[in-house]
Amino acid sequence: MGDVTLEHVSKHYDDVTAVDDMNLDIDDGEFICLVGPSGCGKSTTMEMIAGLTIPSEGKMFIGDREVTNLPPKDRGVAMVFQNIALFPHMDVYDNISFGLRLRNYDKEEIERRVERAAEIVQLQGMLERMPDEMSGGQRQRVAIARAIVRNPGVFLMDEPLANLDAKLRVHMRTELQRLHKELDTTIIYVTHDQAEAMTMSDRIAVIDSGQLQQIDPPLVCYNEPANLFVAGFIGSPSMNFLDGEVAADGFSSTNIDVEFDPADLGVEPGTDVTMGIRPEDVYLVDEESLVSNPSHRIDAVTDVLEPMGDEIFVYLKLSESAETDLEDTSGVANDQLLMSVAPDTDIAEDEDVTVVLDRSRVHLFDTATGEAISHGIETPVQTSGAPGTEAESDD
Ligand code: ADP
Asked: Of 68, 195, 258, 286, which is least surrounded by CB within 10 A?
């Protein structure tokens, strides 16, 4: 009933392609987040599903019905927007029931639906309040209740929490998850806040320049990003990227090499590759634990430290000339590495340190196409104590 399918859907505005050949298969009851940078086509995708914008090409289905050219009211979808437009002169009951009254539902049916919706969003006892007597979060719940009473097969939510303060946003996230469980309805949710996407959705659809980059459960996008864009977009702070090439014995770059047999990964020596490693997969080690695998050591100097409470971000310089730019920590930097360490770690700025990478968490991408080559590099089994044995980590 609430399955949503987009087949080769595009939307062009003059010379702008807002959505480019999008294919989506959303199952009934799924909670899907559309994420991506501003202008990537999230809202346009949503508006096309709602019927507010007609695609230039492609077909759309909701359930087994083709809806490509159907008006919004015939699609069985309800939308909740970022800007909550409640009628200021109507109380909560009238605001929630407005659409039903307009469609001449009988009084008892309206009462039954409003009561159920109020219960789901926990607004019982507030039905006689006026909008200006409510908090931002409560008003947003009225807007959601107004969508619920329509019994839609699909909920479309476009940044519904964007105007709420940080604490309320976190609270409303939990409420939306509860709501989804209770209603068991498809929810398609647009957000640029990846914490929202990671915590709430069954699957995340990552979009860039109107094109779908990956659609997978949050942890798959995090652990096995399909390409450089997804790897850099999902995760905060961003993954470290270093450009290099495949040498006869593995990845080789200005300051960091990672040994492996190129044949194992099916890459030709000479290929330009970008290595990615997340800050939490870089480990501080002491000389003693390095005795068995000197080839894995990376010597660095600590630069800026950012204590976050539950972890410390340590900006490492891999060369004398490296400069930490806190304004822009995304993208490729061959002489820097961001590491995350436990909050009680004894570490200071301008200190010589040695770190290792968790090889099982090293990502390799084809620099030319951006496509992922591998996630994690197996460490060959070696005789004990021989160089190349895996470093100890507490992972
Ligand atoms: P997002 O929601 O991800 O921020 P949008 O879907 O709003 O992105 O926009 C995608 C692209 O399409 C942007 O470049 C935007 O400027 C363009 N666009 C969106 N709506 C229109 C429109 N009505 N006319 C012209 N260009 C538009």
From this structure: 286
